[in-house]
Amino acid sequence: MQKENQANLALILSVIGTIGTVGQGSSLVVATLHHGFLAATIGGLADWFAVKAIFGRPLGIAHRTDILRRNRARIMESLVRFSADDLLSKQNIMDVVEREQIGALLVEYLQHRGGGERLIEASIDILRHVASDVDSRSIAKELTPYVIQALHELPLEDSFAELLNVLTEEPHADRIFNMLVRMGSQLIRTQVFQDMLRENIASIRMEYEGDGMIRAFVLSFFDDAMIAEWLTGRLEEILTSAMRSDDRRHKEGVQLLISFVEGLRTNSKLYEELHRYKLHVIEHLEIENLLAEFIERRMKGHHAFWIPYLKELLNEKIDAFVHSESWRNRADRWMKELAAGEIEKHHEMIADFVREYLNQKTDDELIAFVESKVRTDLQMIRVNGAIVGAFVGMGLSLIVRFAERMWGL
Question: What percent of the residues of the chain are helix, what percent strand, and what percent coil, each to the nearest 5?
Fold first, then answer.
């Protein structure tokens, strides 16, 4: 049963009890009950009038009733100041903030509530949106002079010399020689090499035979294909043996390779050619177009080259934060200091928000809003008023009766 119905029922019972006990004799019990019901009726009516006077004009009485409507400005300002200065004061807010372990809450969010993934995706979306608004052509035009300058300053000749120095070192020279031998082994079995070999054999055969019948007779036992197959097999044997590090051919081949590289390293004309080639390439490269195309294709869109690197970086930083107590403490202090600063600067917004919210309501809406929040408690006042009134009425009735009997009043 709703509290208002309980209060109304208590008042009705009090009125019925008062009427029902009037003129029912002067016995102690009946008189006591009558005065109890009467006092409960008076208390219930008084509380009903008081409650109704807060929100309206009970029985049409306008004097000192309709309290909320008549004192709206003062009550609203009291509510505003109570919300801002007492309930949500700076100290109360910071007390709540200080009790929280914000660093631990961040770890919980990042690790177990999908916060890490959301943070990474949000960062990528923001950067992707920023990149999509970039004018590729304008950025390329600004970067082109710096790229050209960097290419001119690129130490291509020095890098080439260092590369040659590395190639002359024994392990590298040995591996390069083996690689060349393997390439040679594959080359001699290609159709192009075999065709070229047969052509050269045919040419040599013709020169060798000349007009000599004996030579022609001897060579007739060997056709070009047989000779080509024999030469190919012999070349394979030589190349296979050259792969063994203890073989004489291998050692001589490595030394020849080293000598060749050292000759290149000391060739000043080669470096001059490299320098001229670098200038030629820089001059003919359409650097601005290349940069614009790179920005458009590789920096924008859902498949930009930087996205995997950014994900890896953010995952590393999140993992470092999760496993670092000092980082968590630092984040905790920073966020609390930030909260304190923001509360200090914007605390009046609480009062402004409450005031604006209340100002948006008409008198009737405000009264209905307040009444909906306190209706239950106010109805309990009525119930308690009737109960207390009943006990007080019965108590006073008994006191009066005892006094009359004791002093013969």
Answer: 85, 0, 15
Burial 389-401 (b: 16+ CB within 10 A, else e): bbebbbeebeeee
Per-residue model confidence (pLDDT) at position 218: 47
The count of C-alpha atoms lying within 13 angstroms of the C-alpha of 265, restricted to the half-sphere facing its C-beta, is 16
Please tell me the distance from the alpha carbon of residue 7 to that of residue 12, in angstroms, as a whole number.
9
pLDDT at 312: 93
Tell which wins on pLDDT, 209 or 378: 378
322 exposure class (CB count in 10 Å sphere: 0-12, 13-18, 19+): middle
Cα–Cα dist 214/204, whole Å: 16
Mean pLDDT in residue range 267-278: 85
Cβ contacts of 249 within 8 Å, gap of 6 or more: 238, 241, 242
Cβ atoms of residues 21 and 34 within 8 Å: yes
Q: Which of 254, 238, 265, 266 is nearest to 172 (CA)?
A: 254
pLDDT in tens, 33-70: 888 888 888 888 888 888 888 888 887 787 778 787 88
pTM for this one?
0.50
| pLDDT for position 1 | 44
Cα–Cα–Cα angle for 272, 278, 281, rounded to 5 degrees: 140
Residue 362 token pair: 């008409």
Residue 287 exposed, middle or buried by CB count within 10 Å (0-12, 13-18, 19+): middle
Two tokens at 112? 């177990």
| CA distance linking residue 206 with residue 65, whole number of Å | 135
Dump pLDDT digits (tens) for 90-121: 888 888 888 888 888 888 998 888 899 999 99
Q: Which residue has the tokens 């195309």?
A: 293
What are the tokens at 48? 């009903």
